[in-house]
Fold Phycobilisome rod-core linker polypeptide CpcG.
Amino acid sequence: MTIPLLAYSPSCPNQRVDPLGAPDDETIIYSTDDLFSPTEMGALIDAAYRQIFFHAFRWDREIALESQLRNRQITVRDFIRGLLLSNTFIDSFYSKNSNYRFVKHCIERVLGRRVYSEAEQIAWSAVVMSKGLQGFIAELLNSHEYLENFGENVVPYHRRRVLPSRTIGEVPFNIASPRYDAYHRDQLGFPQPIWQEAVRTFRSYELQPKVGDPALFLDMAKGFTSQACQPSITSTDSIDIDATVPYRDNNDITSSPSYRW
């Protein structure tokens, strides 16, 4: 027997209050209702990958789903469903996180908002426990909130990035909530200090040496030795004239057929 969705109250007013005309920064709405060219469809697909995966490598892309979406055989909601049930998403988010954290990731990526409260995480975690992964994804995509905000043809996006009376909007959930929890980040060696070291050694374009700058030849100059070349000194007393100078015998000249008196 499956457990129905437990009741919870939206405790975050940011998701229930209208934005009062404040535009959302860094928010571009992608919909198949307005896209006709292959380039625009490719931008929509990339936006869906960024929303669900944050970044999709070449081996993470679902080529079959992309082809079906380009040919309008499936809707954007079906494409999002396929990404949520893909091996990449299951391995990266479901297998390496608890049900509570997995629910948090899905609400942020699918519904485009932060979790209201711990009660909402518990309610959706019960759905994962009773209906499994596919049942949970189906409940999330069939929810009234998803259909009202995104429908069948709109790629989910991070809502309410700009808040009234605030100069800085919300931090994107891709940065605020990493893909892995603290345990798996420690196992994988995150965060990596290599990127930070690269930033410290970065030099702006104005400070970089230009063509003809002596600094470009510094390494080549360091490769030369400091010792000067010494000329070889040979005494004439040590040269054997008889052995080194070629000698021509007169008998060889007179016996040569080409010799003429």
